[in-house]
Each structure stands twice: as C-alpha cells, then as structure tokens.
Design goal:
By secondary structure, this protein is of the alpha/beta class. The protein is 35% helix and 30% strand. This is BON domain-containing protein.
Length: 219
C-alpha cells in the first residue's frame, strides 16, 4: 500500500503534469488515502480538472474537494448571460436530445433538469456547460427515463455488465454486479479511483440501467 507521503507526492506531480491545472493554486493533504484538494481555481472546469488529475493517481481512495472558484473579472458573466450560453451550447450538442434538458442559473451555478434515455446523454449535458465563462458550479438533476428498465431483465443487465468489465481492465470476480428494478449495485475492489469511475461508467452503459450504486473499494 502506498504511504500518504508518496500519494501526496504523486498527486502533486500529476497536478503539475496536467496543463489544465494551475498547480500553484492547489494545496493537497492526504490521510489514509483520503486526498483533500484545497485552494482556488480560475474556472469551474479547472477545478474539475484538478479533481480528475488526482483521481488518476494510484493509492487515492477518495477525494474531498474544497477548491474555490475565483473568476477573473474579465470572464465574469451575469446569470442571464450564462443561461443563454448554456441553452445555446446544449442546442448545438448532438449527444443531448433537443429540448430534453432545462437550464436554471443562480449565482453562477447551473442546474440541469429534465429526463433522457441514457446516462451518456446526461453526462454530455453536464460536460457541455462546464467550460462556459462565468460558471461556478454545475448541479446535475437530470433523470434517466424509467421505460429503459423494460428493455432487459435484471440477470441480463448484470451479465452484460460483467462481460463488459472483463473485456476491459477488470479481472473476473474483482467487481461484483447485482441488479434489481433497473438499479445496478457494484461491489468489490478496484486498483485506482479512476478504475472505480470506469466501472460505474460501464454499468451505466448497459441498456436497462436507471441507477447505479457504487460500493467498490480502492486497493
């Protein structure tokens, strides 16, 4: 198991390696594999980039993100301007169904609401608005349509997910899959936090998945 000191060293190195992150603005503490990121970022997407970079490091078990978004004056926008830009961005994103996602903005925080058929559509909507100027945060409240559940039974969903995991980075029986009423529960172990996230993405890709509960441990 990596020591907290070595994990901190590697996280700092990964932050410095990522060109999207201004590493001199980010502080790092580590305790029992729990990484806390603090400091500030010039934009919301830079804040997310720091979190993503830390998740790539082996030995990181979880991340507490305490980074404050401090927008430079020249990129600050009103809520009305942000909302208009977000709606336009979603309209031009081919992965987001037209008219399926509604936008609300308050104090620079975008809230996305609506219902879509697939997780990738929900993820695409959030990804589309994160880099917009003036954004301080994104709250994703988009739901997956319940009708998707009828496309496959629970056993079929679980079997399909296991096969997909085994095709990728995961050895057989390292991640356990159970499905009930369209909710997939993942347990077991993953080598890194990034692998854990990959397992969740794999579960969401299965037709019939409407929710994912992630109980995978790191290590």
């Amino acid at each position: 198991m990596n020591s907290d000191h070595s994990v901190k060293t590697e996280v700092l190195a990964e932050l410095a390696w990522d060109p999207m992150v201004k590493e001199d603005q980010i502080g790092v503490t580590v305790r029992d594999g729990l990484v806390t990121l603090m400091g500030h970022a010039d934009s919301y997407w830079q804040k997310r980039a720091a979190e993503t970079a830390a998740a790539r490091v082996r030995g990181v078990r979880a991340i507490v993100e305490e980074i404050e978004v401090r927008l430079p004056v020249h990129v600050q926008r009103s809520d009305e301007e942000i909302a208009a830009a977000a709606v336009n961005r979603l309209d031009w994103d081919g992965a987001v169904p037209t008219g399926a996602v509604k936008v609300q903005v308050e104090d620079g925080v975008i809230t996305l609401k609506g219902t879509v058929d697939h997780q990738y559509q929900r993820a695409a909507a959030a990804h589309a608005v994160q880099p917009l100027w003036g954004v301080r945060g994104v709250a994703d409240q988009i739901l997956i349509r319940e009708a998707q559940r009828k496309r496959a039974d629970a056993q079929q969903i679980s079997d399909d997910i296991r096969k997909a995991l085994n095709r990728g980075w995961f050895a057989a029986d390292t991640v356990h899959v159970e499905t009930k009423d369209g909710t997939v529960t993942l347990s077991g172990r993953a080598a890194t936090l990034r692998d854990r996230t990959l397992a969740v993405s794999t579960a969401w890709a299965a037709p019939g998945t409407v929710a994912v509960e992630n109980h995978i441990r790191i290590g």
